[in-house]
Amino acid sequence: MEKIKKYQKAIINVLNAYQRTSNTVETLLLADTTHHHYQVVEAGWQDADHYHYGILFHIHIKPTGKVVILENNTEDDLAEFLIDKGVLKSDIVINFIPERVRQSTGYAVA
Fold first, then answer.
1. Which residue has the higher pLDDT, 31 or 46?
2. How far apart are CA 29 and CA 70, in angstroms?
3. Which domains does the chain have, with CATH numbers?
4. What dihedral do alpha carbons 40, 41, 44, 46 form, nearest 10°?
């Protein structure tokens, strides 16, 4: 449980850096600290005719303590940011990389 709390704090710290608001689009951090799901979403009007809603990041901490990156819709290396905040590379699963390829990434397979 201690590891999960440590990782939760690291994730929230990293994702907080993405919160920003323009006049029309908000970037929001959604943190479910009970089920350990963390998202950054953008929502708002890009212009008078185009509403935008999109997930930038979605991370889940499994009961085992593995940090599973379910989505990363940016160019940023979210895994490296998490490592910089104390998450072990061996505890990070990049879920959108096919499982057969994960073993060559240096991150956890599952």
1. 31
2. 15
3. 2-102 (3.30.310.110)
4. 90
